[in-house]
Amino acid sequence: MIFKYLILLLFSISFIATSYAEEGGGLSLEPVEKIAMERLAKIQEEALYPEVAFSSDGCSGGLSAGWEALAENLPSFAKTLGEKPPWEECCVAHDRLYWAGRTDDGYRRRLLADGELRACVMSVGRSEAPALSSRYDISVERIEEVFSIAAEAMFVAVRVGGVPCTGLPWRWGYAWPQCIDLDGDN
Question: Which pTM does this prediction carry?
Answer without folding.
Answer: 0.82
